[in-house]
Amino acid sequence: MHKSPLLIAILGPISACSKDTVDGKACMEVAEEQTTCPSGADVNPHDLFIPGKCGGWKVEEVKGNGTRETMTGPDKTTQMHVCCYLAELAEEGHDCSIGRPYFDGGKELRAPLLSHDAPLPPASARATAWAVAGSGEHASVAAFARLSLQLLRFGAPSDLLHDVHQAAMDEVSHAEICWAIAQRFGAPRVSAGPFPFPDSIAVDAGLPALAAAAVREGCLAETLGAHVVSVAAELAPELDVKSALRNIAREEAAHAVLSFRIVAWALRVGGAAVKSAVCAAFADPWPKLDVEELALRANVDAALLHVASEQGVADVIQPAAAALLAA
């Protein structure tokens, strides 16, 4: 059987896509002195947030009554008092970033885009899509910067540290490429404003949490993104767009391999707790990509990218995950 080049690259160092609705946890913040939770029947689903989900999820139905919990707040230093409920969760769309998002407290963060030109007529949808994609690539710089500090805390080998810093530099280039193409299609010249970091950036999460995040953000989201962008690059009719997407896909593929290497290292040194966290991360619903947005940017048929996404799960992620957990 022919193996994907990306799968082969992943398997070297470490030698069905998710349902539309799933059961999961949804929570609401309550006062510290509140010791009981409202009945599930009295809770408005719009008042609940979903910890740890990439964008596009909503609460369809609250199932049963809540339990009182505490969890780390968005600033990573304080405790939130919450009531959490079993809920039916639904995806509103395939809108996770292509690349490695920056999550804080379960929320994806990006810097605002700043225009350097005089006001222009509204940009086309395609130009806007490229500009927004650049903000996602820019957020990946922050994600890799935080990851490097976390790896340092656990004494990760120097080859991983080197490649994480190289990945951050790649993402700077990706952002600039996206903004240049946005300008080519009529958007104003933009750059990123201040990144909305919380007051303190936590790097003291345990190794199991680091490994689980690497699964979600790298082994799943970034790997699938690299595969689908490579397909979009081959289908793109315009030479400059094709070249840009090829460059991004090649480097995102290297980042995907890096994520599997990081998780493999964590499994080797972290024991049963890391293995349990990694298995749980792979068992969660897997992220889906915003292929409609990518199709608009590449000027290709979105249906072809939906097929590519399904193939990426079946031909790359599933066998790579099985090999990682069996190693």
Polypeptide structure, described:
With 327 residues, this protein is an alpha+beta fold. The protein has 2 domains: 21-91, no CATH class; 103-326, Up-down Bundle (Ferritin), CATH 1.20.1260. The protein has helices at 5-14, 125-153, 158-184, 207-235, 239-283, 291-298, 302-326, and strands at residues 21-29, 57-62, 67-72, 79-91, 103-104, 107-108, 113-115, 190-192. The strands form 3 sheets. Strands 1, 2, 3 and 4 form a 4-stranded antiparallel sheet that branches. A two-stranded antiparallel sheet has the order 5-6. Strands 7-8 form a two-stranded antiparallel ribbon. A hairpin with a 2-residue loop joins β5 and β6 (107-108). α4 (207-235) packs antiparallel against α5. It is globular, with a radius of gyration of 20 Å. The relative contact order is 0.15. The mean pLDDT is 86.
Descriptors for this entry?
327 residues; alpha+beta; Ferritin; four-stranded antiparallel sheet; two-stranded antiparallel sheet
SSE string, helices as H and strands as E = HEEEEEEEHHEHHHH
Radius of gyration: 20 Å
- If classified by CATH, what would the architecture of the largest domain be? Up-down Bundle
Helical content, roughly?
40-55%
The average pLDDT is: 86
Q: Could you say which overall geometry the principal axes of the C-alpha atoms support?
A: globular
- The helix/strand class is alpha+beta
Instruction: Give the biggest beta sheet.
Output: 4 strands, antiparallel
